Every structure is written in structure tokens, then in C-alpha cells.
Large ribosomal subunit protein uL29 (Nitrospira lenta), 69 residues
Amino acid sequence: MALDLKELRQLTAPELVEKEKQLVQELFGLRFQLGTGRLENPMQIRKTKREIARVKTVLQEVSQAETKG
């Protein structure tokens, strides 16, 4: 589920917010699996956190562009 920046920049602000919610929920599930010892790939947590950061960055860019013009 690797997110490309080009794909993210094509999304609207509400779609980005929804994507962020989905990723946060996925991260919660991964952390829960880690705590119970059922997580097969611990690197998935890092990947999900980085995807959340990408979405937040693009969302911030969109909001700044809206305020400027």
C-alpha cells in the first residue's frame, strides 16, 4: 500500500483527511498486533507512520495553497 506523492497530490482535502484516518486506524491495528506478539513484519509500523507523514505533508500544502489564493 505504498503511497506515491503524485497520487496523493491529486486527491482533494477531504479525501486526504479520510486517507489519514484510514492509516491511523491501520497503525492502531499494527501496534495492537505488536503488543500481542502476532505482528509478522514490524517494519510495517514504520512504513505506515511514514505514509501518515506524507499525507499530512500534502494536506498542509493543500491548506496553504487554499489560504494564499
User: Anything to note?
Assistant: The chain has one domain: 13-64. Residues 60 and 66 are 10 Å apart (CA to CA). The chain has a mean pLDDT of 94.
